[in-house]
Amino acid sequence: MTLKKPSESEEEFFAREEAAKQKKAAIERARVQSQTEREELKKRHWMRCPKCGGELKTITFREVAIDRCFSCHGTWLDEGELERLTGKEPGLLGKIAAVFRSE
């Protein structure tokens, strides 16, 4: 029996579902956390790479300030920055941005 590769729309659907599930879990974690815990976490992690813990530096790319880790070469975007980078252009980046919109 051969498995059929999911279509592009199926992949997008499952990516949206997973993003919604992750967002709901993050909201629940934030609700349970005290304000003091949130402030302590922010102090420890502010401008640190979530992948390797290295220091993040802000660089400008296409007039958008993005965070870059020069240790692991990760690039991190704040809310809305992916949409600003992709603009209204169709294509892969536009589809990726659509998955993470909080509509």
Give the topology.
Elements: H1 8-32, H2 35-45, E1 56-61, E2 64-69, E3 75-76, H3 81-86, H4 92-100
Helix pairs in contact: 1-4
What is the gist of this entry?
The chain has 103 residues and is an alpha+beta fold. It is built from four helices and three strands; from the N terminus they run ααβββαα.
Beta-strand segment tally? 3
End-to-end separation in angstroms reads 39 Å
**What general form does the structure show?**
globular
Number of alpha- plus pi-helical segments: 4
Task: Give an account of the 3D structure.
With 103 residues, the chain is of the alpha+beta class. It has a single domain (28-100), classed as Roll (Ubiquitin-like (UB roll)). Helix content is 50%, strand content 14%. It contains four helices and three strands. It has helices at 8-32, 35-45, 81-86, 92-100; strands at 56-61, 64-69, 75-76. It has a three-stranded antiparallel beta sheet. A hairpin with a 2-residue loop joins strand 1 and strand 2. The longest helix is centred in the first third of the chain and has 25 residues, at 8-32. The radius of gyration is 17 Å and the shape is globular. The mean pLDDT is 82.
